[in-house]
Write a structure and sequence with these properties.
Number of strands: 0
Shape: elongated
Number of domains: 2
Radius of gyration: 23 Å
Length: 123
């Protein structure tokens, strides 16, 4: 009985390594759960767009511009991220699973870059 168990354990270990090589060759697999968890994550992270954008805009310009324009840019990015998350959660059963609706990281939204570029600095 011990021999059969040891042979099964060795075969399981060897087959795991062989299957892992196949998975590396194929690349990542995207499923409905990828889209669902990405959507839930976007909804959870969306409120953090405001303080991160305020900090980033203030670091690039000054505190006043960071608080005013950064807050507006962060709110816009947060609403966009929350909307994309809700849409991902609502449509997680339908493809495509690999493409995200959000193309920027937290705090690096195009709205924050535009706020830094266009806000008047004469104040």
């Amino acid at each position: 009985m011990k021999k059969v168990l040891m042979v099964a354990l060795v075969l399981f270990a060897v087959s795991g390594a062989a299957l892992a090589e196949d998975a590396v060759d194929e690349g990542p697999r995207y499923t409905i759960f990828t889209k669902l968890f990405r959507g839930v994550g976007n909804v959870i992270v969306s409120p953090f767009e405001i303080p991160v954008s305020v900090f980033n805009v203030a670091a690039d310009t000054d505190v006043f511009i960071g608080v005013t324009a950064g807050t507006i840019a962060g709110a816009a990015a947060g609403i966009e991220r929350a909307g994309a998350g809700v849409l991902d959660v609502a449509t997680f059963l339908f493809p495509p699973y690999d493409r995200s609706l959000i193309t920027f990281e937290v705090g690096k939204s195009p709205a924050a870059k535009a706020a830094v570029a266009t806000f008047p600095r004469e104040f």
